[in-house]
Design brief:
This protein is of the alpha/beta class. Helix content is 37%, strand content 26%. The strands form 2 sheets. Strands 6, 7, 8, 9, 10, 11, 12, 13 and 14 form a 9-stranded parallel β-sheet that branches. Strands 1, 2, 3, 4, 5, 15, 16 and 17 form an 8-stranded mixed β-sheet that branches. The mean pLDDT is 96.
């Protein structure tokens, strides 16, 4: 008999993609669906997935085992959010009002808004204040079903401030349930004090920031905002290659506001993920597919920034690129912490099927941040991270409806709607 200290029994339906990751093309819509299912874990790792009647014959609960009855529910993997700017200080909601009145992203930035406004607030915030503000946002993500998330620096744009942000990520990784994957994004913008001498800032990134981040083991990844008016493809390549030499694996913001060349850089440097991609073209997608680059798409950002277009997810899948989705939670355009909302937009604005969107929000998202060995699917040996949905899995697309009944992390309930009632 298999011993388990956590069991979910009588599940109406268990729905999960299965590895190996990532899933591409037609495989992205392949999910396993088990009716009248059960799942069990021991010490946070899944030890059984299958029919409930087989659980009776093969699994024995420990004396203190937690057992949940989910006969009216569907169980899916905990969501993985592979692109967030969740650590920041300050408030830019007035920019949303300006955007609704017709102001463009560029106009707001030219008036001192945008990233540089958040930089000023984040630099001024203490580490404790930054951690306290971020903890609240992580709680919102958890209640929307996220159990693993990438978290970027990038609102410091100075060595001390960038290290402060990364320390906050490391600290919060041990203080709340969501597993956090840290990314160094010192190349998020050119800080205002370097606008007339941008090469000096690039040199600061190359020769001071990256070595400091690497020596302190504060990040796993190095990212660059490769975009018109921000970092050129040549600068992005130089920064990502320097990061790789220091042990920071490459990922990139690419082709969000125009065809910037970022997706080509991603293929050239072997980035695990190229993100945004609203303006990616088929030949760029073919290069990404050949290089094994994941397309991490951020429909919530496109929605709130009023971009009038979304990333061509259907073309990317048809070209053989593995597609992930993320919230892009940030103070200026990623106003929702909800992976189910990202899935909804992926389905209704980018042409994905529900199964493709679920895979994009779980297994492929986990692969995009190299956590697919532990997260992203409900398979034996993986972490017992799950979302219990009241009703069918497709009910996750009912924006605003309280369909998430509970969230499980490492084999323990970390959110329960009934407990909040």
């Amino acid at each position: 008999m298999i011993s388990a200290d956590f069991l979910i029994r009588h599940i109406r339906r268990l729905v999960t993609p299965v590895g190996p990751a990532p899933l591409r093309g037609a495989e992205q819509r392949r999910v396993v669906s088990i009716g009248d299912a059960a799942i069990a874990s021991q010490r946070g790792r899944i030890v059984f997935v299958g029919r409930d009647e087989d659980c009776d014959r093969g699994v024995s609960g420990t004396p203190d085992a937690e057992v949940s009855d989910a006969r009216e529910c569907t169980v899916v993997p905990g969501f993985v959010d592979p692109h967030t700017h969740v650590v920041f200080a300050g408030d830019r909601r007035e920019e949303l009002r300006r955007r609704l009145a017709g102001a463009s992203y560029a106009e707001i930035a030219a008036d001192g808004g945008g990233i540089v406004k958040t930089v000023r607030a984040t630099r001024d915030a203490s580490e404790d204040a930054l951690a306290d503000a971020t903890r609240i946002r992580l709680g919102e993500m958890l209640r929307a079903g996220t159990t693993t998330a990438e978290a970027k620096s990038g609102y410091g744009l100075a060595t001390d401030a960038e290290l402060k942000m990364l320390r906050v990520i490391g600290r919060l990784n041990g203080e709340q349930p969501i597993d956090l994957v840290p990314t160094f994004l010192g190349a998020h913008e050119i800080p205002t004090e370097y606008r007339q001498r941008r090469r000096d800032y690039v040199n600061l990134l190359l020769h001071e920031m990256i070595p400091a981040v690497a020596s302190l083991h504060l990040a796993s990844w190095c990212d660059v905002f490769c975009e018109t008016g921000v970092y050129t493809p040549e600068e992005a390549r130089e920064i990502l290659e320097a990061g790789a030499r220091a042990g920071l694996r490459p990922r990139i913001h690419a082709d969000e506001l125009a065809r910037s060349g970022g997706s080509r850089v991603a293929a050239e440097v072997g980035a695990r993920s190229a993100d945004h991609l609203l303006f990616v073209e088929r030949d760029d997608a073919e290069r990404m597919a050949s290089a094994g680059v994941v397309a991490t798409l951020l429909p919530i950002a496109a929605f709130y920034l009023k971009m009038t277009r979304f990333a061509p997810a259907r073309m990317l899948i048809d070209t053989g690129v593995a597609v992930a989705i993320a919230t892009d939670q940030n103070p200026g355009g990623g106003f929702s912490p909800s992976m189910p909302f990202a899935m909804t937009l992926a389905c209704f604005s980018m042409g994905l099927t529900f199964e493709e969107a679920l895979t994009a929000a779980t297994l492929n998202a986990a692969y995009a941040i190299d956590r697919d060995a532990d997260a992203g699917s409900l398979e034996i040996g993986k972490l017992m991270d799950a979302v219990i949905v009241r009703g069918e899995a497709v009910d996750l697309l009912r924006v605003g409806a309280p369909v998430i009944d509970a969230v499980v992390k490492n084999g323990r309930r970390v959110f329960s709607r009934s407990a909040e009632a």
